[in-house]
Amino acid sequence: MQVRDAGTVVALIGVRGFGRTYLGPLENLVAREEARFAGGCDINPEAGADLPAGTVFYDDHKKMLESCHPDITIVATPPHTHFQLAVDALEVGSDVLLEKPPVVSTSQHARLAAAVRSSGRLCQVGFQAMAGEPMQRLLALVADGAIGAVTDIAVTGQWIRLDEYYRRSPWAGHRHLDGIVVADGVSTNPFAHPVMNALAVAQADDPEATPVALEVESYRCRDIATDDTVSARVHLSNGKRIHIALTLCAEEIVEPVVTVHATGGVARLGNTGTTLTIDGVVQDVSAERGRPLDNLLAHRRDPERAPLMVSLERTAAFTAYLEGMLNSPAPLRVPSEFLRQRPEEGSRRVILTGINQAISTAGEELALFSELGLKWARPPASVPLGRAE
């Protein structure tokens, strides 16, 4: 018998932007009498028109929290605003679903974790692939030693983003803006999901393992203040290594893949975390993306049968990685002779010649771009990583 939970009050901070992706799921939950969508908040007054009938619009999140008394508050705003909004929600007794990346420093992570503990509330992070069946199966296989001991993990991905992508908001294309850490970057924002997946796999059989050092080459192919192409190697305290090769200036789109090298086989989590193969054999798992909101609701109803899949605590390694990227040297500009550009969809597309093959080779050989001898690549910077507890 399905448990009805129509009394669960949900509020959304950030209606426009990524917050739009929550509107449909929230309406479905309301229709199934599993939640009540009480309020939505946005600094854009026109965002109220996006809300369904019966949901009250606010332009001040504190007023919404005080009026709606939400059981769950979804925070889908720019990353640098997450910490304070989450704390404000916890202080009124609300559980929190926090979009990725959860926060922008290990200090914020530690303080938010302390606030979660002292409030007695829950904080789930919106890394959707972590809640999907392919990732859950992979984590179980690694934890059980079914594919042997993991040694190395590769993260590869080639996407295309036009100049318009960096005009979507004032903080887009920046690591810092007006003295504030905003944390945009190819591996910390658009490709945050596969990086988080790799870190989780590295900890699956050793939850106490932490990232301790980062070798990083960051590049930019256009006039932005962050990277759009990255080659990096993360060293963990348990000896495992994660090799990262990503770009937003691809010749053609290749979806991200997390490749797990172990003593007893090779696992590949592909298609943005929706497929899983072991030694080339496709596993029988649902390709449906995970739903952190549904998991949070289920956990509230029955914590033993529905464990929280992406607690704030589980994302500490990602926050340490993100902080390391922010502390690394400014990205190097790729010389123009290695770039092509063309108009596309009313904007401009920049293409890094040969990057698809470079990323494929980097993933196969577990190598940095500079180790492949690419003419535009430079030796990596070494960055120590702090702990986010």
UniProtKB/TrEMBL annotation:
Name listed for the protein in its UniProt record? Gfo/Idh/MocA family oxidoreductase
Tell me the domain of life: Bacteria
Q: Which UniProt keywords apply?
A: Oxidoreductase
The Gfo/Idh/MocA-like oxidoreductase N-terminal domain is annotated at 10-127
> Which InterPro entries is this protein grouped with?
Gfo/Idh/MocA-like_OxRdtase_N (IPR000683), Gfo/Idh/MocA_oxidrdct_glycsds (IPR050463), NAD(P)-bd_dom_sf (IPR036291)
The organism that produces this protein has a lineage beginning with: Bacteria, Bacillati, Actinomycetota, Actinomycetes, Jiangellales
Q: Which organism is it from?
A: Phytoactinopolyspora halotolerans
Gene3D superfamilies according to UniProt: Dihydrodipicolinate Reductase, domain 2, NAD(P)-binding Rossmann-like Domain
Give the PANTHER family listed for this entry: BCDNA.GH03377
* Any Pfam family the entry gives: GFO_IDH_MocA
Q: Give GO terms: molecular function aspect only.
A: nucleotide binding; oxidoreductase activity
